Every structure is written in structure tokens, then in C-alpha cells.
Amino acid sequence: MLSNMSLTQLPDQDHLNPTQQKLGWSILYHLFPGGCILLFYWIISPWLLKQGFPSSFAVLVGFLLVGIPLQVFILFREGYSVNGKISLTHIIFYTKKIPIWKHGLFILIFIVYAIIITSILSPINSYLLENCFSWLPEWFRNNTELLKPNSSPIIITYYVALFVIDGLLNPIIEEIYFRGFLMPRISRFGLLSPMISAALFSLAHYWQPWNILQIFILVWPIYFLVLKNKSIYISIVLHCTANLIGAFLSLAQYLSTGQH
After folding, report:
1. CA nearest 118: which of 224, 4, 219?
2. 227 neighbors 194 (Cβ within 8 angstroms)
3. Which of 91, 105, 179, 180 is the most buried (most CB within 10 A)?
4. Burial (0-12, 13-18, 19+ Cβ within 10 Å), 163
């Protein structure tokens, strides 16, 4: 259904007050999709590893087959419950458009901010991985291991999925779901609502628990901008930008090995 609605057609209803959700239900709605993705990831990774894929490919498949459909289902189920028909009216908020120059400015600021934060926290992430999560299987802890050489179909499949699913599809749906649907329903917490949204979103990344702190510090300023500007387009653009940069860096790292 969302595929039939462009981002410029999201209903503009920020003049309305979103129905507030009990915090317990909000926590469940935030964490449940990630839990389903984790279960899929845990089950399917050993088989995909045998096919030559890194286990991170199972996360991408989980996004496509579990996370995205589940979030879209929840959105339209809520829409049907509220409107009596399949509709996003009174469901998606923070849909104001902002000038393109602002998007460009936010992208530049975020890139600088992300470089600083990842540089500072990278040693902490490594420490947590080695000392707090050493009990996890090797394929879980090294889920971004480079692809094996001389496997062109697998390499092409992996990177197409990385750019299309992780770079575009999943960030768009996640921001509509987490920031357009869930965050407005805890807006009674005022300036704390972006921090609550960031904390729960970060915790939902069960497949990389050593990065939860870094994810939180990276994203909460973005969600503050979403709240201030009443625009999920900010987080959509920045989320896609960050993931696409990550995909380009991963591809560059693979090509630099000379194994292709």
C-alpha cells in the first residue's frame, strides 16, 4: 500500500493532535518489529553462510521479508481501525515539507557530527564486542565480514540488497513508522519524546547490541529536528544518506582488497 503512495502524498494533518499512546504499548510497538527481525536473522543466517553470504545479508532479507511488511501492516491496521478503511489519515504526523537547502545543510552537519561520534565511540564499541558479547556466535559478532572472493553472483546480490534495502527501502519505512507514527504518540513528553524514540529505536537493533549507544547518540539530535520542524522528511533523508554512505564504504572496502 505504501508503494502506491509517494512520500509527497503523506497526509498533512499536523494541525491535529495525535492520539497519545500508553508508554508500555509504545515500547512494545518500538521493540516488536526488531525482535521479529532478530528471530528471522538467527534462524536463516547459518543457511545463508553456507551459500557464501555474510550473515549481515540475513538482516537485509529480514528487513525485506519481516520488518518492512510488519511495519506497513501495523500502519494500515491502525488506519483501518481509526478510519474504517485502509488509510493513513490520522495515522502519520510530522509531514511538513522543508526547503531543499535545509536538507543539504542538515546532511553536511550530520556527516561531520557522525564522523566525530563514530571516531570517539569506535573503541568503546570494540571493547563491548570483545568483552561483553564474546558469548555470541562468531557469525553474529562478525556479521559484516567481507564476502569471499570469486563469487560474483553473491557479491552483486549482496551489494544490490545493501544499497536498495538498507540504503532506501528500510530507512523510509522505518522513519514513517517510528517517527511519523510512534513518536507523535508520545509527544506529551515534550522535548523528551525524541530521546525516548531514539532510545527505543536504538534498543531495537538487537543484531548489533554493541552499537546501541552509538546509534542513540547519532540519532537523537535528528529526532529533535523532526520534532522542532514537524517533518519526518528530515530523518528520512538523513537515515538514507547515512546508510548509503555506509554501503559505499563497504563496497569501497571490498574493492580495495583486490579480491574482486
Report:
1. 219
2. yes
3. 179
4. middle
- Given a contact cutoff of 8 angstroms between Cβ atoms, the answer to whether 197 and 223 are in contact is yes
* Cell (9 digits) for 25: 504499548
Return the C-alpha cell found at 99: 526547503
Residue 185 amino acid letter: R
- d(CA 163, CA 89) in angstroms, rounded, equals 30
Neighbours of 238 (CB within 10 A): 25
The pLDDT tens digits for 115-142 are 999 999 999 999 999 999 999 999 998 8
224: CB partners within 8 A, 6+ apart: 191, 194
Q: What is d(CA 158, CA 35) in angstroms, rounded to the nearest whole number? A: 23
Q: Which domain holds residue 211?
A: 2-256
Q: Is 231 helix (H, G, I), strand (E, B) or coil?
A: strand
Query: What residues form DSSP beta bridges with 95?
Result: 231
> Half-sphere exposure of residue 56, counting CA atoms within 13 Å on the CB side?
18
Q: Identify any residues that bridge with 231 across adjacent strands, giving them in sequence order.
A: 95
Domain count, the chain: 1
What backbone torsions phi and psi does residue 185 show, to the nearest 5 degrees?
-85, 0
Cα 114 vs. chain centroid, distance in angstroms? 16
Rounded to two decimals, what is the model's pTM? 0.91
The per-residue pLDDT for range 31-74, each reduced to its tens digit, is 999 999 999 999 999 999 988 898 999 999 999 999 999 999 99
